[in-house]
Sequence to fold (276 residues):
Amino acid sequence: MPLLITDLDNTLYDWVTFFALSFRSLVEALVEDIGVDREKLLDEFKVIHQMHGDSEYPFAALELPSVRAKYGDKGTEELKNAIDHAFHAFNKTRKMHLKLYDFVETTLATLRNADVIVVGHTEAMAVNGFFRLKHLGIARYFRRLYALEGRDFKPGFDDRLNDDFIRLVPRVERKPNPRLVHDICESEGVEPADTWYVGDSLTRDIGMAKAAGVHAVWARYGTQYDGELWNSLVRITHWTAEDVTREAELRRACRGVEPDFTIDSFAEILPLMRIG
Fold:
């Protein structure tokens, strides 16, 4: 029985676009509500993101010095209510832009009907990765989700899934770690030769998959987004100077790495796996 390990962000949906636009809505609402300079807020967000090691954390707004200065010593729930307009703006924009790429759901359904084991592997925190699978209605197509350990995750927080659905990945084991791919294969009972890995990052997904000896499929379509939106995320990234250096080293190490296959639609995985 073959195994498909799929990245989530910018492989199943356009994370860069939906999150950058949602975060922009959050910030603009805060600027309007508390009357603080936008760049000042972005600087504060970056500090909080680095403290938590995660940029995908809208509730960082509750910890911003400017918000605390505006609302004094309000408790957490009172503070949430005070800036609810900003959270509402974030959620409204996310709902509008968090959509599956074309043919993702039909392809996942075809894979399931063909008895392919499908698991997700993401650099997102478990709570965020699972939220998106659930929100997009595709969790049922996955046997398991491998996601980073982090704040706010409680095993079994969704009663429709058993605790074994989500496997937490320690941060020290994050991409690109070929050993983790081997661990996934072993856990799912499939040999690397019968495993396919699809992702949008040549550095973090394809380089790792090639090193692990599985079929490496580059989702080229996931790299097609507005560069300005990416720059807006870099502006508030949780990456430290050490992270930036590590990324540069990874890029150098993966220079010249070629995927086994390149696809411009998630559906193209089917003929590669000789399905359908």
Notes: Residues 15-34 form the longest helix (20 residues). The radius of gyration is 19 Å.
